[in-house]
Amino acid sequence: MVGAGVSSSYEPVIGLEIHVQLKTRTKMFCGCPAEFGAPPNTNVCPVCLGLPGALPVVNRSAIELAVQTALALGCDVHNRSVFARKNYFYPDLPKGYQISQYDRPLATGGVVELPAKDGSGVRRIRLRRLHVEEDSGKSIHDRFVEQTAVDLNRAGVPLIEIVTEPDFSVASQAREFLDRLKRMLEYLGVSDCNMEEGSLRVDANVSVRPAGSDELSTKTEVKNMNSFSQLEKALESEVARHVAVVNSGGVIEHQTMLWDPARGEARPMRGKEEAHDYRYFPEPDLPVLELADDAVAAAAGTLPEMPQEKLERLVRQYGLPAYDAEVLTSTHELADYFEAVARLTSDPKLASNWVMVEVLAVANERGSSISDLGLEPERLAELIAMVADGDLSHALARQVLSGMVESGTSAEDVINTEGLRLIKDSDELERWVAETQAENPAEVERYRAGEVKLLAFFIGQVMRRSKGKADPERLRRILEKSLGSDPSEDSAMPDTG
Ligand code: ADP
Ligand code: MG
Ligand code: ZN
């Protein structure tokens, strides 16, 4: 990078803090429903309202989900961790403090690996910690004119916070990490990861330093991003701003920023508070959180296969290209579906093509999930077998597939009711070929003059004439014969005679 211009002689340093809402039925310290979307201030009780004398009780299920996540991320889960009060005033924080964890978090360490897109090695993103805490309520600024409303339904909902080391040196890596983390959380089933509803929110810390330096410069923190693409933009914008400030001899202030997507810039929200501002102390209303080794081991034993493991296994077991495995493991639902189909077919790559291209296209068209399509793996496998056996062309099979989804019946039924059988009858194929040639004399001539790639044009024309039903193999043979065996061919090459 040396000498490559002023701006490229700085390198970005980025660290993330990710808040994930856990998928529990009830809140972190009380029995109120943790669901999203109830009428304002209906999921509340003395505990989450912070009424005098109300005492918190730890939600076991939240701890289990947090432990699973920590284990899946390779963190050390500690036998003893401590809840702590983080004191600050906010209208949506009725107790005047948030119960979190501070110097004794549930878990520390851990790594997420980001394989380089071009296969050139792996970047290791180290995790600093994973702790459990409760969410605050919500201040609503856009509902009433010049008034702020407070909804406490979210107050006390269980969260985990995952903190990375400042190991990212490009904004796009941060995004890639978040995509991977989200996929892992979805596989684990610990959160619905619904970004619109705020189940996954990210604070991004950013600074820049001279390339090659290993010192950390003053950072700014962009708060509460719930869109990964906006987060990437916010980071790029902040990096550019930091570089500009430093280049002009200025100093970056340690600030908390709010991203304004409309203006494409981060605005300072407040001066950055430090840990000591929060007057953390151990939560006196809760005991130390104790987790026995065998409980942790038992949780480790129940972890599902994680996306990367699944991806590698699909490549190994079915001989799929990495690209296919990547697409198929985007959700475990899709991967499970693929495997169910692949087990029933003799050609896993063909099964992969059908699942990741055609089935996904139908699902996207209808805006529905794979399971909502009602397309049993057995039925898709039957269709694929017909293609493999040459009983259906690819084009025809696509029509059959949409008929199957439409009607909820088998390929056989759709073929019968819609007459989608391949036409193999030579007389009929020859008639179409003759008609097509008669209509396209110029192309026939060009083909015969050596432009053999026009065969695809003729196949396309006959296919259209046959509404996609012509048997492609037979058609190709008939076309080649008929185009090549014209009597004029001999007279066109007098020299060779
Ligand atoms: P704070 O006390 O301001 O919250 P922490 O040291 O707890 O800061 O770190 C919070 C997050 O910021 C972590 O993800 C960490 O990796 C990241 N971070 C810390 N220092 C820097 C820096 N100089 N530049 C970029 N990110 C940083
Ligand atoms: Mg912080
Ligand atoms: Zn409550």
Describe the model.
- There is one protein chain.
- The protein is an alpha+beta fold.
- The chain is built from 17 helices and 17 strands.
- The strands form four sheets. Strands 1, 2, 6, 7, 8, 11, 12, 13, 14 and 15 form a ten-stranded mixed beta sheet that branches. A three-stranded antiparallel beta sheet has the order 5-4-16, with no helix packed on it.
- The protein is elongated and about 90 Å long.
- The N and C termini lie far apart (68 Å).
- The structure holds adenosine-5'-diphosphate, magnesium ion and zinc ion.
- Zinc ion binds next to helix 1.
- Adenosine-5'-diphosphate is lined by residues 13-17, 163-166, 205-207, 216-217, 219, 275.
Key phrases:
about 500 residues, about 40% helix, single chain, disordered N terminus, binds magnesium ion, binds zinc ion, 17 strands, alpha+beta, elongated, 17 helices, binds adenosine-5'-diphosphate, three-stranded antiparallel β-sheet, ten-stranded mixed β-sheet, disordered C terminus
